[in-house]
Structure formats: C-alpha cells, structure tokens
C-alpha cells in the first residue's frame, strides 16, 4: 500500500540565537506517520526585482525525483531506504532540476538601510561561523510532531555568501 | 548496455568526437564523514585540492535522511588543460585511494565512501 508523503513546507523563519548563530526554522507538513520523505533542499539567494535576500526550499523529493527519472514514488522510497547514498547521489545530480520548483519561503527586502542591515547581519554571521543551524519541525497527519536539528555547513560556498553580503552592503548601488 | 573503457580510451574518444572536457568533478558520500575541520576526509581532500590548485572548489554538504541518518558529501572540481587531465585525474584518484585505505586501516572509517566522478564541460556564456 502506498503511504502519504510530504505535503508542503509551510513556513521558514530566519533568526539568530543568543550566540549570534543564524537559525533557520522550518515547519513541514507531512503525510501519515509512515512518511519518511523528510529530505528537502534549502538555499539562500539574492533575487530581484524587488531586490531581496531570500530562502528557497523544495521538498516532496520522492515524488519530484520520480517524475524527473520516470520512476514511481514507491521505487524512489525503496531506493532511499535501501541505498541512501545512491538516493543522495541522485538528489545531488538533479539539484538544478529540483530547484526549478523551489518556493520562496522567506525574504528580507533590500530597500532600506534598516532591512539591509538585517540581511547583512545574517549573512555575516553565517560566513563568520561557516554554518547555520537548521531546525525542522515535521508535523504528521496524526497530530504528532518530530523535530530535527542540524548544523548546515557552507564550506565551498563562501564566495557566494560573500557576494550576497556585498549586495546587502551596497543594496542602494545595485541596479535591477 | 554501456561498455566500460579505460580512462585513456575514453579521453581519446572524446578528443575524436570534439567533446574535450574542461576538467572533472569528484564527489564522495558517507555517513562517517564529520562536519568538522579535522574530519580525516576533509584533511585529505584539502591537501589534495590545494596541491592541484583547486582548493577553492572543495565543498561539503549534508543530506538529512530518514531515521536520523545524515549523509555528508565532499566534492571538488579540477579545471585545466586537456593534456594534463588524465595524469591529474589518475594521480588524484591514487592519492585519495591511498588516503582512504589508511583511514580504514586506522579505523577512522569502517568502509570507503561511495564516490562519483564526472567530466566537466564548461558552457560558454553567450
């Protein structure tokens, strides 16, 4: 029998904890209690227009990967359970395709000194610590909730974050 | 069914087909990697990529799988002259294999990570 899988990422909020680490809190609406489609992709980026710092996510990866690879969701689930490395490899190979259905979950407008300063503080903190903290709350259809916490490294993406920081600093010089 | 050929033959075929790669991309997947600077795999790849002048491309990511399994990946890309590609690719591969064997022998890892190697074709912007 087919189970119910991840429905949607309902909200993503950005903040800072007392150690000045950036914390990203995501609420995810899941299917039934057997739903294991918990993996989702999350990206910081600058979008225009209007100019803004955004967080994009894409979830429901079992279903989306199945469509991309022309395989059914149940096949993808079996692959994920039996060979998680191969599944992760497929997600990585298809990241660009998967992000095409990315949803802008949160944004900081870069249209005033005040908001740009918020964006700057977040990106500077991520660059400084080399990571951010991701807290995910999975809400299942039976009313139960599971929480996961994970450090997300930005190793190798420093130059992208530095560019975002520069844009946050010079927001009023950027023409869109 | 695809036929597997050795690297030299594959590169020769690419040259004949005028699809010369600009470099290659290597990626490693394991639940045993760590998110710290002293992760043995991080140290090994840092040494390798710095030696081959591609340290800036070294990247680490995490995939949170079900049942609290975290798969950590390392990846890097080398871009350079076609005439050097085979030697660099083989040397890097050998160095990494030696390093991984040492890690397994030293119990830093139980098993060698899964890996993927791909040629890179850089598209020119119009």
Put the structure in a nutshell.
The complex is a heterodimer of chains A (176) and B (126). With 176 residues, chain A is α+β, with helices and mostly antiparallel strands. Chain A contains six helices and seven strands; from the N terminus they run ββββααααβαββα.
Structure description:
The complex is a heterodimer of chains A (176) and B (126). Chain A contains 6 helices and 7 strands; from the N terminus they run E-E-E-E-H-H-H-H-E-H-E-E-H. Chain A has helices at residues 61-69, 73-82, 84-93, 95-99, 113-129, 158-169, and strands at 8-16, 22-29, 41-47, 52-58, 103-109, 131-139, 145-153. In chain A, the strands form 2 sheets. Chain A has a 4-stranded mixed beta sheet with strand order 1-2-6-7. Chain B contains 3 helices and 4 strands; from the N terminus they run αβαββαβ. Chain B has helices spanning 7-16, 40-51, 82-105, and strands spanning 23-30, 59-65, 69-79, 114-120. Chain B has a 4-stranded antiparallel beta sheet, covered by helices on one side. In chain B, helix 2 (40-51) packs antiparallel against helix 3 (82-105). Chain B is elongated. The N and C termini of chain B lie far apart (36 Å). The A-B interface holds A 36-39, 80-81, 84-89, 91-93, 131, 136, 148, 150-153, 155-157, 159 and B 27, 29-31, 35, 56-71, 73, 75-76, 114, 116.
């Amino acid at each position: 029998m087919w189970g119910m899988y991840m429905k949607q990422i309902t909200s993503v909020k950005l903040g800072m904890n007392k150690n000045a680490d950036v914390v990203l809190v995501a609420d995810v609406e899941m299917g039934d209690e057997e739903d294991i489609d918990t993996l989702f992709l999350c990206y910081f980026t600058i979008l225009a227009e209007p100019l803004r710092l955004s967080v994009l996510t894409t979830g429901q990866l079992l279903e989306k990967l199945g469509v991309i690879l022309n395989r059914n969701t149940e096949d993808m689930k079996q692959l994920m359970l039996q060979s998680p490395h191969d599944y992760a490899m497929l997600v990585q190979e298809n990241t660009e395709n998967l992000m095409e259905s990315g949803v802008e979950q949160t944004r900081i407008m870069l249209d005033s000194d005040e908001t740009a300063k918020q964006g700057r503080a977040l990106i500077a903190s991520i660059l400084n610590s080399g990571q951010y903290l991701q807290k995910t709350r999975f809400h299942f259809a039976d009313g139960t909730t599971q929480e996961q916490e994970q450090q997300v490294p930005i190793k190798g993406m420093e130059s992208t974050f530095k560019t975002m920081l520069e844009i946050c600093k010079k927001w009023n010089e950027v023409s869109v | 069914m695809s036929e597997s050929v050795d690297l030299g033959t594959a590169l020769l075929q690419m040259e004949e087909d005028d699809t010369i790669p600009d470099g290659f991309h290597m990626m490693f997947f394991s639940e045993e990697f760590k998110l710290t600077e002293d992760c043995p795999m991080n140290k090994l790849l840092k040494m390798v990529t710095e030696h081959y002048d591609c340290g800036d491309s070294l990247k680490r990511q995490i995939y949170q799988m079900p049942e609290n399994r975290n798969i950590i990946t390392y990846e890097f890309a080398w871009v350079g002259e076609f005439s050097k590609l085979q030697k660099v690719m083989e040397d890097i591969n050998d160095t990494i294999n030696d390093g991984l064997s040492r890690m397994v022998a030293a119990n830093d890892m139980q098993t060698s990570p899964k890996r993927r190697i791909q040629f890179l074709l850089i598209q020119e912007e119009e």
